[in-house]
TrEMBL record:
Domain LamG-like jellyroll fold span(s) in chain numbering: 388-543
Keyword set, alphabetical order: Disulfide bond, Signal
SUPFAM superfamilies: Concanavalin A-like lectins/glucanases
Name by which UniProt lists this protein: LamG-like jellyroll fold domain-containing protein
Amino acid sequence: MSPERLEELLSAAIDGSLTDEAIDREELNAALLGDEVLRRSAAAWLSEESLLRQEAATLPVSNTHHKHAGAAAPTFRRERGIGASIVPPPSIAAAIGYVALACSLLLNVTLWLASREAGPAAPSNPTDPVARLTRVTGCIWEPSSNHAPERGDLLPTGERLSLKQGIAEIEIRNRDVQATVRLIGPCTARTHAGGIPDLQSGKMVVDARVFGRSLHLDTPAGHLKFDDNSSLGLVRSHDNYELHMLDGSVGWTPGLSTVAADPFLIEGQITEGDAIRCYLRGRNAVRIERIAPASNKFAEELSMTNDRLELGASYRRAVMESLPSNYWRFGRTKGARLQNEIADGIELTIGGDVKTVSYGANTALEFGMTRQAGYLKSEDRWPKAPLRDLTAEVWVKPSHYHNGTVVALTTERLSGHFPRHALALELGGSEAHWRSPTPLTSLRYLLRDEPSDLPDNEFGSSVSNGYDIRRWQHLVYVKRGDRLELYRDGVQVASNDAGQDKHVAASLQLVCGRLYPPGAPAERLYIGQMDELALYERALTAEEVKEHHDIGTQKPPPPGSI
């Protein structure tokens, strides 16, 4: 649309002649919504026009004008569209009406421009689909407008997404381009009409397929134009914004508000392996620099099949030589029951939705990858008598940082009470949970004698940065007399006093994948994969723990090797 045509339509809108012209009105709306240059021109024109009309309203009006009240109302005219040759309105009241119309249009355009910085406004039709939530993994949402997003939901423009925990995948379709956006909790973002959400805090990954067309994203670090088959990781905190190019490339134009830049940063392309950080002051960028790429910040982007665990006959032999009282390989099932390798051991029952994952000849179980949580529980009670020494050994691959219980031993639930814990091994999440004392991203192990539903007088501790995500880890909990020990990947990472003459109580229920047995609240659900659980009525030595880990991480020889 030409500037002259824009001025003509705006003048008609102010003078009222656009009211019944639907075609003109649609043309004006389309122009303002589709072209940022025209929007800014309209804002400037309306601002000047409203001032001119206010000035006209202050001009003296001849009393003789009332004699011609029946004459047609005069219009405002501009010479060459810039200067003003003003014909005053028939009355001050009419002038006020003109000013109100101009201000109304000015307000609408200005608010739209402001929304480009503050976040998009809600659409005129809130049901218009702009994005679809296609996949959720262990998601805990902070409800928005009393509604927590669910898989399959269409997300309207302006929707604020606050993900406390988990991974949410959003499919974006904008004309002929496609993008998949993964929000990695905790994070917040706001949706745009047909575009990539605006990241407000946390981490987000964008995979774009543009098929030779254009997909753009405005960030505090500048304007980005995605190339085909590109993958970009974004991290935002209160004082900086990072771009990590994971695959492909994007065109990059630094923002005008950036006042200082790394001299080695050149406007143009950001390619795979590049990363930049933009320092923020409020909402403005004040400095930008090149940084070392850190793809590990987006470890959640690794496939759950990325790290393989192939525990074979040699591992089974090593475990059996250490004399476990219970040992489950997770590949041998009888219906919903996991068969115990120990003839007189207890059986575990699968509850909820637990999937089987194969790594060659080895089989593991996968929890929490569907909307129905999964867990394991024992029907029988164990041990038969209190234990002074005990070992619990398991392999885990968490999907992401979350509050999740790997193994727990609890009492039966009494009326009006939660089950009481004697032992627990659990993960700390990426964000605090009001009912969990486990520090963020830590590994916590505890002993309570007597079993209790309160942390008072418990023994144990938490290990900071205690686990990795999407990688197999060998965890071993050991009670050795008056000491508690925790091992990760064959190395002791914690040792604590276990109290004098303290024991693991008898007749407990074994639970894996959740804090409490079924019938009690489903809290601290474990999300990820798990394999090879063994319980011992003795304390494994440090040498045994390391041997088990080393054998478990050995890769089997290729078929046909000699």
